[in-house]
Amino acid sequence: MDFSDRILSWYAQNKRDLPWRKTRDPYNVWLSEIIMQQTRVAQGLPYYLRFIERFPEVADLARASEEEVLKTWQGLGYYSRARNLHATAQRVATDYQGTFPATYKELMDLKGVGPYTAAAIGSICFDLLTPVVDGNVYRVLSRYFGVELPVNSGEGSRYIADLAGQVMSKESPGNYNQALMEFGALQCIPRNPDCLACPLSDSCVALAKKKVSQLPVKLPKKAVRKRYFNYFMPVDPDFQTLLIKRKDKGIWRGLYEFPLLESELELPDEKAEAQILEGVFTQLNEPLKFVKCNPIPLVHKLSHQHLFVTFRILYLGHGLRGGVPITKMQSYPVPIPIANFMETVKNSYF
Ligand code: SF4
Known about the structure:
Order of helices and strands: HHHHHHHHHHHHEEEEEHEEEEH
Bound molecules: iron/sulfur cluster
Mean pLDDT: 92
CATH class of the largest domain: Mainly Alpha
Distance between the termini: 66 Å
Radius of gyration: 24 Å
C-alpha cells in the first residue's frame, strides 16, 4: 500500500461522524470549510448547525442582512470571514444562479476562498485533483517524508505543496484530502503523537530518525502586538447606552462596541477619564460618575495581537442622542469580550 492508500484505510476506520461529511453539496461543504478555519470542531459544529438551520440554501444566506449574519456568527471571531461568507453567498446567488462554480479558478475568485478552501471544495464536491495544504498537512508530510525545510519559508511551503500533489489519491481526491486532515487532527497531532499506535509507523522517516518532536521545522514567529482598549459604557437617565459600528479595516469591522479609547499603554484611571471628556465623544460630557468594572484588564488573545480590555460605566445626567435601550443592546452583533461584559452588567448593575 502506498501513502495515500494507507491514509484512506486509516480514515475509513477512524473518521469522526460530522454532518458535512454526509453530503457533497458545495453549499454545505463551503460553509463548513469557512466556519472550521482556525476553529476546533467542538467549537465550530454548533455554528455550522445554526447556519444550516437558519439559512438552509445559499439564497437564504444571500438574502439575509449583514447584521443577521454577524449575529449568527457572534463568538467565532475573525469576523471578516462572516462578511466574506455573506458576500460570496450573494455572488453565487446572482452571478451563478445559486449553483457553486466547479473549477478551481472560479472557486478561488470567491471572496474568503483561498487555495486551501478552493482545493477542499474542488476535490470533495467536484473530484478535482487539488491537494489541500495547511498546518495539519505540513506536519504529517514533513514527519512521514522527513522534510526538514522550514514550512513557513517560501522554499519549504512550495516543496510541501509539490509533494502533496504527488502523493494524493487520484481515484478519491476528496476523501483523501479529508483523510489527511483528519489524520493530522487525530493521529499525527502536534505534541506527543502516539506513534506506537500509528499504522504508518513502519515507514515514517521522522520516527526512524527520532525527529518526531522536531518536525515540522518552523522559523520563529513575529512578536505579538499589545493593544489597550478602554471602553466607556454611557448610561443616560432613561437607561439608554451608545453602540457604535466599527468601520476600521482592522479587527471586528462591522461589529458594534461602546465608545472606545485605545492607548499604547495601560492608562491610569484619571488620564483615561480625562481623555474621554476632552471631546473624544462630545455626547458624553457632563458625566455624574464613572464606575470601573474590571480593575485588572481582561486579556483577549487574537493570533497576532493581545488586547487588554477595561470597561467603565459612565452615568450621564442627560439623554443620549441615538441611544440604544440597555434591554436591547444584546441584540446587536458585538465582539465576544463586549458580549460577555453585557451579560455581566445586565445582571449586576441594572
Ligand atoms: S509514526 Fe508518528 S510521526 Fe510518523 S506519521 Fe505516525 S503519528 Fe506521525
